[in-house]
Amino acid sequence: MGGGAVVVGGGLAGTLAVAALLGHVETVTVIERDRYPEQPVFRKGVPQGRHLHVFLSGGQRALEKLLPGTVAELEAAGARRMEAPRDVLTRTPHGWHRRLHEGRHAVINCTRPLLDATVRTQVLARAAESGTRVEVLQAWEAVGLLGGADRVTGVRVRSRDAGHAERELPAELVVDASGRGSRAPRWLTELGRPAPREEVIDAGVGYSTQMLRPAEPLRTAVVLEPRPALPRGAAWSPVEGGNRLLTLAGVRGHHPPTDGSAVPDFVASLDEPYLLDHLGTCEAVSPPYAYRDTANRRRDYHAPGGVPEGFVAVSDAACTFNPIYGQGMSVAVLSGLALRECLTDGGPRRPGFAAAAQRAVARASETAWLTAAGADRPYSEGADATSPRTAERLQTWYFGRLAARATHDPTVGAAFRDVTHLAAPPSRLLTPTVALRTILLPRRPGPASIPLRVEGAAG
Ligand SMILES: Cc1cc2nc3c(=O)[nH]c(=O)nc-3n(C[C@H](O)[C@H](O)[C@H](O)COP(=O)(O)OP(=O)(O)OC[C@H]3O[C@@H](n4cnc5c(N)ncnc54)[C@H](O)[C@@H]3O)c2cc1C
Fold it and tell me: Quick one: 118 and 36 in the same domain?
């Protein structure tokens, strides 16, 4: 067993990193800037926590491997399971998805604080039974790394309480799970290393989310995807406690309002009376909250020489996605699983462990990156946007056709969902049956109006 590990950030990815480390190191110290609230409620360290967080089936399957029984715990705590496409009514730029009972994928919907608290409880319970001692330093923040250019040997931490005491925590392995705002690139330069290069693809999406209580419980979620002619969208989804989250999204000049009185006008502009009618039956539980930093951003820690020994960055600290695709939490779980597999294969003392673990973590986010960055690249503006090459134009053409067919063709739709739920690699979209149907069959849109009945269901 390895010596001590420090995990920077006790959010979802940090908690899952602890799960991966159990049994592989003697101690894990988690540094968390916030104090955890007693109840599952919003906290400042996870500013996106007020927004709708859909947990994809690929993430759930990975969670069942890493922490068996946790998905059932989430449902027992009130999270709502919704089968896709049966219960998730989705309007795409190519029409509505047919409402089929496919039985392959379900999303879990609950508030982000409930999800984080449930996973944390599960991990701490397992920690108590493992040979690893886990300590969580709440209201402490990491402010730098210890070591040199070739090896990280620990973390400098500072208390957030009066006095702001500083300490040095030596560690054999430091896992950076401090999220989108990670300062590790700067800390690495302080050790004499270059900062990782960043690839940024920003479609300019702005979010606003409001919690509402409908007069009657509703069994379905509704998703309206932005389209070129109307770069605005919405997701309307049940969460625990009989509430719903309404997330509105808009691309550049179409950012949604943060003033509750302006929400109905924005929803009316989406041209979907079903959603507008339901909104009229709801009472507001919270005001709308905005979120603007939605760029896809990948740091090249996984490149040769990208990390020193003793340092691994996971989840949002390494790679973040436009949240509209609902992938980040699932990638956090897949990264935790990848980290555990690397630990099983030799432990953190193995020479080259950090680089191998970083590559494994990057592989765990590859499908999400290819789908999110690929879909957003045509809409990306600014210094990082480059004009598409022929191969990219071909890809855009193929995926445009495939996405249109997926709305109504059960074979292509199943493959499309396997990949967008992170349950299969993108190569699943290139299998002969899917490719032939996509290329040779006519491109036609899905249903023009909202499918209120499940196909094949009685009544
Ligand atoms: C608006 C929005 C909507 C989203 N919707 C979805 C969705 O539907 N489905 C989905 O799967 N994903 C979604 N995501 C992505 C998801 O929120 C992230 O991928 C996920 O939170 C990543 O987890 P993390 O632990 O890496 O980072 P975070 O959840 O951001 O946690 C980072 C933690 O590190 C702590 N921290 C930060 N710096 C320090 C420091 N220096 N010292 C100590 N502690 C520190 C913070 O307090 C926090 O606890 C969405 C994101 C956004 C922005």
Answer: yes
Same domain (yes/no): 127, 40: yes
Tens of pLDDT along 168-189?
999 999 999 999 999 999 999 9
Q: Clarify whether residues 124 and 180 are in a common domain.
A: yes
User: Could you tell me the distance, in angstroms and rounded to a whole number, from the CA of residue 9 to the centre of ligand 1?
Assistant: 9
Question: Per-residue pLDDT for 382 more than 80?
Answer: no
Residues with CB under 6 A from ligand 1: 8-14, 31-34, 45-46, 48, 51-54, 141-142, 177-180, 207, 291, 315-317, 323, 326-330, 332
Residue of 159, 128, 173, 140 whose CA lies nearest to 348: 173
Among 291, 320, 353, the domain-final residue is: 291
Structure tokens at 170: 């030596």
pLDDT tens-place string over residues 19-57: 999 999 999 999 999 999 999 999 999 999 999 999 999
Q: What is the pLDDT of residue 2?
A: 65
Judge whether 260 lies within some domain. yes
pLDDT digits (tens, 9 = 90+) for 136-170: 999 999 999 999 999 999 999 999 999 999 999 99
Residues 127 and 251 in one domain: no
Nearest CA, atom 50, ligand 1: 323
Domain housing 13: 2-45+112-200+295-372
> What is the atom index within ligand 1 of the atom nearest the CA of 31?
43
At a CB cut-off of 8 Å and minimum separation 6, what does 94 contact? 403, 404, 407, 445, 446
Does residue 308 contact residue 38 with C-beta atoms inside 8 Å? no
H or E element at residue 252: none
**Is residue 347 included in any domain, yes or no?**
yes
In ligand 1, the atom with minimum distance to the C-alpha of 116 is 29
DSSP states of 260-273: GGGHHHHHHTTT-H
Residue with the nearest Cα to atom 47 of ligand 1?
45
Is the pLDDT at 401 greater than 50? The verdict is yes
